[in-house]
Write a structure and sequence with these properties.
Length: 223
């Protein structure tokens, strides 16, 4: 898909595809990646949008440092040579401000404005919703999110031609797949160990017997 094309139904948003996650599970975007998606051929022109966005951030009463992190990345320039290029690590809010200040003649910019506005509002609503929920309601909410994540992952793998739905189901249920994920989260315990520790019957699923906090950790593991 070219930078100027609108995504069709069933395709991942180009802005979602470049979203990254740090070691603490916090999402961020690279300004270099974002500039390419928005169709900017020159970095200096995109920097103008960044500077306007930083000014808007300050005027809104937020700290620029909390949303725009200026860094340097080393890249290969040929024949083994390397040089440092400027980049900016962006929060979702920073991306929203940038697309609001980007070239409005680009169709992809309008798509970006919609995407980041919706995602920001969705996150705010999720925080508000969870704040008033009981423990059982939180557990059900996160369990549903985990189920939906696995469904989308299976669909994406199938659409990409990597595996069929049946192949993915086998992969999802495979003990090795489960154990490596659980061992990293549970200090070396395998799925059967956790199952035994919880005192569950053979027919009972581990994920159905977790609190909201434990489920949230497993949602991050799966993601």
């Amino acid at each position: 898909m070219s930078d100027q094309q609108m995504p069709t139904a069933g395709h991942v948003s180009p802005f979602e595809s470049i979203r990254r996650t740090d070691e603490d599970g916090n999402e961020f975007w690279s300004a270099r990646d974002l500039s390419k998606v928005l169709g900017y051929a020159r970095w200096d022109r995109f920097k103008n949008a960044i500077e306007k966005a930083e000014a808007a951030c300050t005027n809104s009463g937020y700290s620029v440092e909390d949303h725009f992190s200026h860094v340097g990345n080393m890249i290969e320039t040929g024949k083994g040579a390397r040089r440092e290029i400027e980049d900016v690590l962006l929060s979702r809010y920073a991306c929203y401000l940038i697309v609001q200040n980007a070239d409005p003649s680009k169709e992809i910019v309008a798509l970006g404005q919609t995407y980041f506005a919706v995602q920001t509002r969705r996150a705010e609503m999720a925080d508000d919703e969870l704040a008033g929920l009981t423990e059982d309601q939180k557990r059900l909410y996160v369990r549903t999110q985990l189920t939906e994540h696995n469904r989308l992952l299976a669909a994406a793998a199938n659409d990409a031609g990597v595996v069929t739905s049946q192949d993915f189901a086998i992969f999802q249920d495979h003990a090795i797949f489960q154990d490596h994920g659980y061992m990293g989260l549970y200090g070396g315990l395998k799925a059967k160990d956790i199952h035994a520790r919880k005192g569950l019957k053979k027919s009972q699923q581990i994920l159905d017997h977790m609190g909201s906090t434990e489920l949230a950790a497993n949602l991050f593991r799966a993601t």
